[in-house]
Amino acid sequence: QVQLVESGGGWVQAGGSLRLSCAASGTIFHINAMGWYHQAPGKQRDLVAVINGDSTNYADSVKGRFTISRDNAKNTVYLQMNSLKPEDTGVYYCNAEVIGSGYRPRNYWGQGTQVTVSS
Questions:
Q1: Contact of 68 with 59, CB cutoff 8 Å
Q2: Which among 7, 24, 91, 110 could disulfide-bond with 75, CB atoms 3.0 to 4.6 Å apart, if both were Cys?
Q3: What tens-digit pLDDT sequence spans the chain (119 residues)?
Q4: Which of 30, 24, 40 shows the shortest CA–CA distance to 89?
Q5: Residue 19 and residue 86: Cα distance in Å, rounded?
């Protein structure tokens, strides 16, 4: 079994910064892609950023403001969020494609961390 635990959410004024972290634990042989998703109140969950090896991709709405990075030794992914806007408010979920004891890639989600940006 694999668990993803996020941290780093909170309240910040517009223009401020936050850094989210997501640590994977359990029986892990390899992690393929790791990513962050955003769910605004009453809306669907959307991809924010994903990292797979040295490759990164971002939603257009966060390009130039958010940076995703990863520490493979710690099985941890980070999301540095700068120049935050009120529309960035919502729950941020970590996602990882993990090869564990089943020897097949499987998708896991974290419990989510709340980010609130006030105007």
A1: no
A2: 24
A3: 899 999 999 999 999 999 999 999 999 999 999 999 999 999 999 999 999 999 999 999 999 999 999 999 999 999 999 999 999 999 999 999 999 987 899 999 999 999 999 99
A4: 40
A5: 16
Alpha-helical runs (H) found in the chain: none
Pairs from 49-53 (Cβ < 8 Å, separation ≥ 24)? 49/79, 51/77
Q: Is 54 exposed, middle or buried (0-12, 13-18, 19+ CB in 10 A)?
A: exposed
Instruction: Give the pair of three-digit tokens for residue 30.
Output: 């390899």
Residue 32: both structure tokens together: 């393929």
Which pLDDT does position 102 carry in this prediction? Answer: 79
Q: How far apart are CA 74 and CA 24, in angstroms?
A: 8
